Amino acid sequence: MYAITVCVKCLNNDTATCGISTAHHIPPVMQIDENTLVIKDGETIVNENGQDVNVNGTCLVIHSNDVFINGTLYPTSIKKSRIEPLTASIFKLKVSEHSTLVSLAYLQQVHIQNLEKISQKTEHVNLQQAFYLFSGAILLGIFVITATFYYKHRRQQMVNNEQVDESNMEPRVQFILKQIENNLMQIRDDSV
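-> structure tokens emitted (192 positions)
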């Protein structure tokens, strides 16, 4: 506040060189006295007597009538009677230095917001881990089932390959097999 008050006293023509401070908890429009306002580093609409003026940057607004800045009324109790309405005087400020001020309340608010974001991220990560574990278990189950069916199918093929096709055997081997088969049938008949 002191730097801006000194700045107001240093006005020379239409430009003043001032140092400003950015503070997230301080509003962008600051009232110096009843008819003097400082607009800090922003895009605003100044309305005096129904006329809108778009203002960009840091400006000093000196007004003699009630003025609206971004829809907020800044009244003047000392009314001067004029025949024709005048718009607010606006002086451009040249910023010589810039500093950032942060209040304890603002830091606490940011801290709470950050804790909430961390909590949300943690929940998201936990859900992702559960999803990955569930997906892994399903994929492992599918792999085990597929491997089991493959093993059984492969084993059946090996058994089928081990069975000898009688048409390709030599006649002597076929004769021996026939005798073994007849002997087995006779043993079975005898046991009954």
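The first helix runs from residue 2 to 9.
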